[in-house]
Design a protein that fits this description.
mainly beta
């Protein structure tokens, strides 16, 4: 069974950093994108960042550009999200997605993790 699994969430003060990891086991995702989305209470799930299998192309939401960095380790079928200069508005449940054919769209992904909570205090 394919199941991306996130780790690395937690509570951090504004201006701090966190690194999220997502290991996608069960199959290889060669040729597909992997991405991160987030959902805050009362809001719709939104795109955060994505990366192609090769790692040569990355995509970011405008709200996180310059602060977040996505990277991948294909040997481990793992994608990372380094989050710096965190703001209270970054507070959300962060979801890893794998098997993406449309990198910036939630509907373009076949597999989803269960999410990890990120809370940024002011």
């Amino acid at each position: 069974q394919v199941q991306p699994k996130e780790s690395g969430g937690g509570l951090v003060q504004a201006g701090g950093s966190l690194r999220l990891s997502c290991a996608a086991s069960g199959r290889t995702f060669r040729g597909y994108a992997m991405g991160w989305f987030r959902q805050a209470p009362g809001k719709e799930r939104e795109f955060v960042a994505a990366i192609t299998w090769s790692g040569t192309t990355t995509y970011y939401a405008d709200s996180v550009k310059g602060r977040f960095t996505i990277s991948t380790d294909n040997a481990k079928n793992t994608v990372y999200l380094q989050m710096n200069s965190l703001r209270p508005e970054d507070t959300a449940v962060y979801y890893c997605a794998a098997g993406g054919t449309r990198a910036t769209t939630a509907a373009g992904y076949a597999y989803w993790g269960q999410g990890t909570q990120v809370t940024v205090s002011s």
